[in-house]
Every structure is written in C-alpha cells, then in structure tokens.
Write a structure and sequence with these properties.
Length: 259
Amino acid sequence: MLNRAPRNFLVRLPPFIKAVVAQSTGFLATLLFVMAADTFGNWHFPLMVIAFVQGGMAALFTLVLGMKSWWLPIQFLFVPGLLAGLALDVAPYWYLLVFLLLLVVYWNVFRSQVPLYLSSRAAWRAVAELLPSKPDLRVIDLGSGLGGLLGFLVRMRPQGQFVGVEAAPLPFILGWLRYALKGCDMRFGSFWTHDLGSYDVVYAYLSPVPMADLWRKVKAEMKPGSLFVSNTFAVPDVVAAQTVEVDDFHASTLFIYRL
C-alpha cells in the first residue's frame, strides 16, 4: 500500500504536470547514467546522444505515469528539438511567438484537459439531420472552436437560434469574426457556468475527461425531450439512445442522448 499510494497520486495529476515530472525524472536518470559512464568506464557521449537518452527516459516515465500514447513522441523529441533549435541558431523571439500562439489556441487545456477538436463537414450534416423541426429551435455548441458547425446550421435553419461558447481566445475571436454577424451568438467563457435549460439540442466535441461531469450538468439542467449530442466521446456507463456513424477522416460517431 505504501508503494501504490504515491504512484496513484502521480497518475491522477493533470497531464501537463505529469509531462514535467516525466521530463525532470528523465533528466535526473540521464544525469546519473552519464556520471556512472564517466566514472566507471570513462565513456563520453556527444550532447545529442545524451539528449536522445534523456528523451527515451522521459518517454519511459511517460508510460509509467499512464499518459496517452500520443505524448510519447512529444516527450522523446522535446530536448533533442531544443538542441536542434539552438544548433540552427533560431532567434529567441520565435520561441516566444510559438508559445504565445499555443497559449491563445490552447488557453484552457491545462485545467479542462479538452484540446481543440474541429468537427468535420460530414459531422455538421449529420447534426443538422438530427435537429427537431420546430421554428423556435435553440442549439448550443459547447466548445464551439472556430464556429464552423454553427455557421453551417444557421444557413440550414435560419429561423433557429444558435449559440457557441468557447474559452480559448484565438478560436473565439476567429469564430466571432466569421459568424457573429451571420446570426450566431458567439460567447467567450466556460460552458460550465452557462445554463443549458433553454436549449433543444446541446452539442459537444470535447474529450473523455469531462463527460461524466457534463452528463450530470445535462441531466440537471436540460428540459425533457431535448437532445444531447456528443461527437466521438460517449458518456461513461450510459447507453446512448442512438448512434450515428460519420463518414469523415476520423470515422467519428455521434452519440445521441434523449432527456
């Protein structure tokens, strides 16, 4: 039990913190390896070789911490990539620009663990076919990104009301510029503070992490007869009333839950 508790604590950490822990642990393990090689074998390695050893150690600890497999190449190539940038004499402001760009796009990922996913046009068409045929239809997209779904729906159903909520600054600004004057109500902020009770259809394309909590919010706030549609990510331990296979690049599935 003493050994299991600390590991369980680490596994429950947010992905960003676990990535830092993996990198730091990989650095310490590599430092010990290099010191031992120098002390006992008088072996010396090129700096880039050491960087790849550190990347391998970081990737190993990434697995130990139970992170998703797509983190492996990021962790493995992080330090070698930094060295390559230094070797190419990349101007420092480029690092700042890349950081700022990632910040305004993935503003809320650290806390929400919901990256930016963009729904395909095929998914837009599939959602449009699910909409009830009522004149005062109200639809909300939780995490609306660039607003593509809402822009499509307002063209199909101009008499409806379509709301998008987005917490990342750059996607929100781009979505607002594209669709706010075309009949879409684009709102900046967290959908967790937005009441869902007045909507006929709630759409989400998020991640597995918030689905259980979102379902509790949906059940507490949405009115009987309304629809909750989740792209790709099902509500855990809840059977969807209907599923729709989408013929797009991701082979997406829409999970439809009737309240």
